[in-house]
Design goal:
Length: about 230
C-alpha cells in the first residue's frame, strides 16, 4: 500500500524569535527538518516525502536535501498550518492510499512511532500520536483568576505524526474550506473529526516534543546529542 508523508516546515517561528523559519534552524548539526526527513525514510513504510517550506526557501531547502543525499519533493506553504497541509496534499497523486502528516517542529520523531501510527489506522479513518495530559488543568477567568479546574480524565495532547486515508483527509479539508473554517484547524485530526470520522489515539513517548521556544531547541539538542541507542524506540 502506498504512503506519502507531508512534512510541514512552512511556519515562520515567531515564538522562537530567531529571525528565520524555525524548521530551517540548525539543530545538532543540521537543519531541524532533516531529522524528520530521515526518520520518515527510515520507517520503511513511507514511499515519498513532500516537504512544505516557506515561500522563498525552496531552493535553500532543495540544496540542504541534496547535500544530505535525501529525496523529497519541496513545495511552498500557505499562511496557516492547515493551508500548508492543503498545498502538500494537492501534490499527492490520486493512487496514494495513505498520508502521514508530520510537523518538522517535532524533530525527535522515531521510525517506530511512524510505524505504530500507520498500523493503528486499520479500522479507523485516522490515527494520531498523542500523550495523556499530566498537568492539572485550569480554565482562566477575568484578571487571570482561575474560573475552574478542568477534569483531565481522558484528556490527551495531540501530537504528530497523524495518518489518514488520503481520500478521507481530502474530503475533510474540502469540507472545512467550504465552511470557511480551514485556517482555524491546528491539526488534521480535528478536520476529520468534524467530518464525522473516527480517529484513534496512539500513545507516544515524551521525547516526541514540539520545539516552540529557544528552551525547547536546547532540550531537543540535548536529547539528539545523546547516543542514538539511549533513546527508547517509540
Ligand atoms: N506550519 C506550516 N505552515 C504554516 C504554519 C505552521 O507548515 N503556515 C508548520 C510549522 O513549520 C511547524 C508546524 O506547522 O512544523 C507547527 O507549527 P508551529 O509549531 O506553530 O510553528 P511556527 O508556526 O513556525 O511557529 P510560531 O507559531 O511560533 O510562528
Ligand atoms: Mg504557528
Amino acid at each position: 500500500m502506498s504512503t506519502t508523508a507531508i512534512l510541514l516546515a512552512a511556519g515562520s517561528g515567531v515564538r522562537m524569535g530567531a529571525g528565520m523559519p524555525k524548521a530551517l534552524l540548525p539543530l545538532a548539526g543540521r537543519p531541524m527538518l532533516m531529522w524528520s526527513v530521515d526518520a520518515l525514510a527510515a520507517s520503511d513504510v513511507v514511499d515519498e516525502v513532500v516537504l512544505v517550506v516557506p515561500r522563498g526557501h525552496l531552493r535553500e531547502t532543495q540544496m540542504a536535501l541534496g547535500r544530505a543525499g535525501s529525496g523529497a519533493r519541496v513545495v511552498s506553504g500557505g499562511a496557516s498550518r492547515a493551508e500548508s497541509v492543503t498545498r502538500g496534499l494537492g501534490t499527492v497523486p490520486d493512487d496514494v492510499e495513505r498520508v502521514v502528516v508530520h510537523d518538522a517542529a517535532r524533530p525527535l520523531l522515531t521510525p517506530a512511532l511512524v510505524r505504530s501510527v500507520i498500523e493503528a489506522l486499520q479500522g479507523f479513518d485516522g490515527a494520531i500520536a498523542a500523550a495523556p495530559v499530566s498537568d492539572t488543568l485550569k480554565r482562566q477567568g477575568d484578571d487571570l483568576a482561575i474560573a475552574e479546574t478542568v477534569d483531565r480524565t481522558g484528556l490527551w495532547a495531540a501530537q504528530t505524526p497523524q495518518v489518514f486515508w488520503t481520500e478521507v483527509l481530502r474530503r475533510a479539508v474540502a469540507r472545512a474550506q467550504a465552511a470557511g473554517s480551514l485556517a482555524l484547524a491546528t491539526d488534521c485530526a480535528s478536520l476529520v473529526e468534524a467530518a464525522g470520522g473516527t480517529v484513534r489515539l496512539v500513545p507516544a513517548a515524551a521525547q516526541n516534543l514540539k520545539v516552540t521556544t529557544p528552551t525547547d531547541l536546547e532540550r531537543a539538542e540535548w536529547l539528539l546529542g545523546r547516543a542514538d541507542d539511549a533513546l527508547p524506540e517509540c
